[in-house]
Amino acid sequence: MTASRIVVLTGAGISAESGIRTFRAADGLWEDHRIEDVASPEGFARNPALVHAFYDARRLAARHAEPNAAHRALADLEQALGDEVVIITQNVDDLHERAGSRNVIHIHGELARARCTSCGARPRWTEDLAPEPPCPVCGERALRPDVVWFGEHVHHLDEIYAVVEACREFWVVGTSSQVAPASTLHAVAAAVGARTALLNLEAHDDVTLYDDVVLGPASEIVPARVRRVLGAAADTS
């Protein structure tokens, strides 16, 4: 994945158009829960039943959601350009994969995986964790959601920097880019000479490092950009 032509960073905005509710930073609540209660190691230690119930509900909601036009357009882009397209997503749902994308890096983990706090295994997981089922590897009842919580290290960071530093285009889709290290990636891309694009519902406070800023719903502006890129590719072939 280290010679990618286009790297796309996606955030909550792209999944919100499929009906998945997002963390509301303005009031610090996520589905009416305090973020520290459901998205921190300390919250899990205090009340694992609450945390499991919360993520079981998120897993069910994600399962019932469907990929939208933005997800499908990015999958079409990958189908046309192959390994030259990599998606880095901050989202823990699997809507990119269900749309058809294969080169997807989940920086904040996945709802479709569990993590064993005893042996470290990360098995695929689609069922509830609230009943505290045994780990399929070691048998201990020590599973938690394989989701990165506040205060924890993100996943795949070395791989992410490698693909960003090698890309020629870097798109930011549906994210406010306020959470590091994802918030720094467009600057990394700009530093290596990649063309950068912000495709978002709202502009960021600082857009000086973006070559292109296109505002609107992801389900409209992402397919339009993909059509433009694929049209240009066809013209040069």
Concise description?
The protein has helices spanning 12-16, 35-38, 41-46, 48-64, 69-81, 95-99, 157-165, 185-191, 218-236, and strands at residues 6-10, 29-30, 33-34, 85-89, 104-106, 109-116, 143-147, 169-173, 195-200, 212-215. By secondary structure, the protein is an alpha/beta fold.
Question: How is this structure best described in words?
Answer:
The chain is an alpha/beta fold and 237 residues long. The protein is elongated and about 55 Å long. The longest helix has 19 residues, at 218-236. Helix 5 (69-81) runs parallel beside helix 9. It has helices at 12-16, 35-38, 41-46, 48-64, 69-81, 95-99, 157-165, 185-191, 218-236; strands at 6-10, 29-30, 33-34, 85-89, 104-106, 109-116, 143-147, 169-173, 195-200, 212-215. The strands form three sheets. It has a six-stranded parallel β-sheet with strand order 5-4-1-8-9-10, with helices on both faces.
Tell me the layout of helices and strands.
Blueprint: E1 6-10, H1 12-16, E2 29-30, E3 33-34, H2 35-38, H3 41-46, H4 48-64, H5 69-81, E4 85-89, H6 95-99, E5 104-106, E6 109-116, E7 143-147, H7 157-165, E8 169-173, H8 185-191, E9 195-200, E10 212-215, H9 218-236
